[in-house]
Amino acid sequence: MKGLDITFTAFIVWLYSRVSTFQVWLDLKGEENWIYPKKIIPLHDPTKVIVMDYSKTTNKQEVLEPGKIYHIYNKAISRDKLFIIEKDYFYFLKKLNRYILPVAHIVAYCLIPNHFHLLVIIKDEENIPVKSEKDKENKAQIVLKSFRNFFNSYTRSFNVIHHRKGRLFLYPYQRILVDDENYFICLMNYIHRNPVHHGFVKNYVDWKFSSYNAYLSKSPTHINREEGLSYFSSLDEFVLFHEENKSVPGMEKYYLE
């Protein structure tokens, strides 16, 4: 009887773990954003209660409020790359234009092989397009969905082109609110100089996949040059600020890497 009791107990533990795993699978089934699924944690010991506090993880979806300025960052999982061939960069920008431009002004960006930086101004509520009456109730959710669709769409396309499966981005995204003018201009410099920081070029002007040269050009661009240059007295001051590579105390808290 003792041996039977042990066998029965083991069976109950095994069954509980299977049920727990199946329940999480049901939660995942139909999850719109498959890039960052919930973790599947079989509860092998039914006496233990595991509480996942997503408020303290980097995978929590952060709200982007209308009218606010944000530094947004994301990177590839593990040692993967977001951009393998040159066409990947252009395809990423194409997706950015499709999904993000309707809800945000892009002031600066930089794309390097395994991560990217964006400096964006979320549009005011009245300028965020809506598709239904329900959307009018929460414009922040429209913005969140736009970023979610952006990451999903690029991942699907990237996986098809490069014959891979699964997640590509490490996070849904990371973001920091930029609430000071001095930090705004320093952050522009930081983003444009990122390829130098990571050793891809010696001069940030030579990096093709940032917004820096868009500011020097008179050609049409999706970058909001007017907004970016409004923080400087002139284009010459913009160029000089980058050359001098100035920073301010406390700037580090606005960096994401």
Topology:
Blueprint: H1 2-28, E1 69-75, H2 86-99, E2 104-112, E3 115-122, H3 139-161, E4 174-177, H4 181-192, H5 194-197, H6 212-216, H7 225-229, H8 235-244
Antiparallel strand pairs: 1-3, 1-4, 2-3
Helix pairs in contact: 2-3
Can you walk through the features of this model?
The chain is an alpha+beta fold. The chain contains eight helices and four strands, in the order αβαββαβααααα. It has a four-stranded antiparallel beta sheet with strand order 2-3-1-4. Strand 2 and strand 3 form a beta hairpin. Helix 2 packs antiparallel against helix 3.
Distance between the termini: 59 Å
* Structural class based on helices, strands and sheet pairing: alpha+beta
Shape verdict: globular
Which percent band covers the strand fraction?
A: 5-15%
Roughly what is the average pLDDT, rounded to an integer? Answer: 77
The Rg value, from CA coordinates, equals: 23 Å
* Sheet having the most strands: 4 strands, antiparallel
Poorly predicted regions are 13-60
Give the tally of β-strands.
Answer: 4
Q: Give the helix proportion (percent range).
A: 25-40%
Could you state the order of secondary-structure elements as H and E? HEHEEHEHHHHH
Number of helices: 8
Strand order of the largest sheet: 2-3-1-4
